[in-house]
Automatic annotation (TrEMBL):
It comes from Pandoraea sputorum. GO terms for molecular function: transferase activity. Keywords: Transferase. The keyword Transferase applies. Residues 94-216 form the GST C-terminal domain. It comes from the Bacteria. This is Glutathione S-transferase.
């Protein structure tokens, strides 16, 4: 995992088959950025080896290395913000829009991701069934989806009237509703938004690339 190999494409992307890994893949494909994808074998503990910890001391995916700037970035939200700022692709055109995108990005990072991630863990990762925890995280996940639905009732996209990294971040998690036994029937605008985004050619490419990465759990990604 050499962060300074001049023979690499401009970007190296360390990932696994997770919502947070998908976030970055979605942006890379939307922006058409040349990159090398490195699938980290989380089940083998590659993310805890010294080579990977030199890139992210927290030992989680995703990570990107920008060889043009000799810069390493970890945390999915930070990566999305960095790439959008660097390339200008999906970058808000006004300060007001930038603030809106940032707040909805943080809404995903601080709310949607942790709650759906915990629900996934108690449904699929835990060795014992904790009905109270499942009910708690299911209720909170549905509440957050309801917030998104209310916003999408007023606009085609989450933060502004344009597709943004806030949509990318939320989409990567909310598309997992079927794995989490979450009923989206009460949320027609979320359902339409998911359908519209999934139809984008770049999204289809990113989903396919993400499926080629190894499986993981919420606790091993950021």
């Amino acid at each position: 995992m050499n962060a300074k190999n001049p023979n690499h494409p401009p970007l190296t992307f360390y990932t696994a088959n997770t919502p947070n890994g998908l976030k970055v893949s979605l942006y890379l494909h939307e922006a058409g950025l040349e990159h090398r994808q490195v699938n980290v074998d989380l089940s083998a503990g590659e993310q805890k080896q010294p080579a990977f910890l030199s890139l992210n001391p927290n030992g989680k995916i995703p990570v990107i290395v920008d060889h043009e700037r000799d810069l390493t970035v970890f945390e999915s939200g930070a990566i999305l913000t960095y790439l959008a700022t660097k390339t200008g692709v999906l970058q808000p055109t006004t300060q007001a829009k930038a603030i809106a995108v940032n707040q909805w990005l943080h809404f995903q990072i601080g709310g949607i991701g942790p709650m759906l991630g915990q629900l996934w863990w108690f449904l699929h990762g835990s060795k014992t069934r904790n009905a109270e925890a499942i009910e708690r995280y299911r209720k909170e996940s549905l509440r957050l989806i309801g917030v998104v639905d209310m916003k999408l009732a007023r606009s085609a996209y989450l933060a502004t009237d344009e597709y943004s990294i806030a949509d990318i971040a939320a989409f990567a998690w909310l598309r997992t509703y079927y794995e989490l036994d979450l009923d989206l029937t009460p949320f027609p605008d979320v359902r339409q938004w998911l359908t519209d985004i999934e139809a984008r050619p770049a999204v289809q490419k990113a989903i396919a690339a993400n499926r080629g990465a190894s499986e993981t759990t919420e606790a091993q990604e950021a």
